[in-house]
Design a protein that fits this description.
Elements (H helix, E strand, L loop, with lengths): L11 H26 L2 H52 L9
Length: 100
Amino acid sequence: MKSWVDLGRYNCDQLRSLVSDLLKRVEELEKDITLQRGTPAGIREAYSITKRMQSDWEQIDRMELTIQKQSEYIGMLAEHIQKLSIILEEHGLGDYAPKF
């Protein structure tokens, strides 16, 4: 079968046989995967996946901490800007007023 269009050429019995063959192949692949999990190669692959996941979570934690620190810094800057704004409203520019 080369494409979905080829399905029109099959009768029901041929399609059942095709599906049955595909299911058998899937079952064989699942058995191979199950057997591989207990082998050293399967264990190494599982360990590798686990380490990558751990590394990803650590990176996410670092990013979250960075975002939190940046948010705190932005908050401090906003407070400072507000204080400067109040000083400007109360005292004006003083001697720093531009002359036109």
